[in-house]
Design a protein that fits this description.
14 strands, alpha+beta, 19% strand, globular, EC 2.7.7.12
């Protein structure tokens, strides 16, 4: 009987963090590509009229200050508002609605519209992390969930190339963190250990999916990764449950690992690598206190769409939408390709 080879034979992998399975089909990497291609990200001079730049006037008439580091302001077109009426009680259990309150903010990383995380200095990235923590501390006192996320690149639906992220705070626990909350709590109840703490211990032993590591953080391609070059950023020490738990050494180490990881991403296909990324930690709110969620481990997720080159991306359609996630390249192969990328940005060579 033929022996199983993970790099040759299809198989399914379990994601315990989301209680779902992923189909891995490595033999599909050999198929020729004749489908859609995207335009390679073009290097364009910064738009002097970019509404996010320092001193610019935005669509609502508000003028940005001449900021020199990070800058946070309320989203001019928010998906969540702080004051809204409550929906009426449902007439039938199949038609339920619940109140959703919140606020949305935009956070600029840098005054230079041509800048990105891999091109910023460690000190500049550290300023971004410090402001993320400030925002989480403030909004987390009032809201159940504070989602910090960055969409980078037009292919990810980013409408403005200026380096920025969004911060959405909500009175409810959204779907993704709600599933992670349940799965991690169930694992902790059953085994008496944090799922991601134990997972990281195993990854540090096996090493095959680790991309980069420093004294405080590890960036790896998860065993259950769905996107081709998906990575997870995990803390090695002190088991922080939220970003607000990070100490000074962890903050600096995170700035370093972010710069290195995003540099490797850019160097993979010699382009400004698109992605959606964000941070997940224990839920927040007025009743939450440091150390109250031992089942959680704070972590970051990078979800890039590119598959074969700067112009060929992975589509989550058809089977992925109707059945379950599927990937071609194995997580181990993806990690190796990223490991082999230089930590010196191609623009600086």
């Amino acid at each position: 009987m033929q022996q199983f080879e993970a790099t040759e034979h299809q198989h399914v992998r379990y994601n315990p963090l989301k209680d779902e399975w992923i189909l891995v089909s490595p033999h599909r990497c050999k198929r020729p590509w004749s489908g859609q291609t995207e335009q390679a990200p073009e290097e364009q001079p910064p738009d002097p009229n970019n509404p996010l730049r320092a001193g610019a006037v935005r669509a609502n008439g508000q003028k940005n200050p001449n900021y020199t580091s990070t800058y946070v302001f309320p989203n001019d077109f928010p998906a969540l508002l702080e004051r809204v009426p409550e929906p009426p009680p449902p007439d039938h259990p199949l038609f339920q609605a619940s109140q959703a309150k919140g606020t949305c903010r935009v956070m600029c990383f840098h005054p230079d519209s041509s800048m990105t995380i891999p091109l910023m200095t460690i000190e500049e990235i550290l300023a971004v992390i410090e402001e993320w923590i400030n925002q989480l501390q403030e909004l987390g006192r009032r809201y159940t969930w504070v989602q910090i996320f960055e969409n980078k690149g037009a292919v990810m639906g980013c409408s403005n190339p200026h380096p920025h992220c969004q911060i959405w705070a909500s009175s409810f626990l959204p779907n993704e963190p709600r599933v992670k909350e349940r799965c991690q709590r169930e694992y902790y109840t059953k085994y008496g250990k944090s799922m991601l703490v134990e997972y990281l211990e195993q990854e540090l032993k096996q090493k095959e999916r680790i991309v980069i590591q420093n004294s405080e953080w590890v960036a790896l391609v998860p065993y259950w990764a769905a996107w081709p070059y998906e990575t997870m950023v995990l803390p090695i020490n002190n088991r922080p449950q939220r970003m607000t738990d990070l100490n000074e050494s962890q903050k600096k180490g995170l700035a370093e690992i972010m710069k290195m990881l995003c540099t490797k991403y850019d160097n993979l296909f010699n382009c400004s690598f698109p992605y959606s990324m964000g941070w997940h930690g224990a839920p927040t709110g007025p009743s939450k206190k440091p150390g109250d969620s031992p089942h959680w481990l704070f972590h970051g997720i990078y979800l890039p769409p590119l598959l074969r080159s700067a112009t060929v991306k992975k589509f989550m359609v058809g089977y992925e939408m109707l059945a379950q996630p599927q990937r071609d390249l194995t997580p181990e192969q993806a990690a190796q390709k990223l490991r082999e990328c230089d930590v010196v940005h191609y623009k600086n060579k």
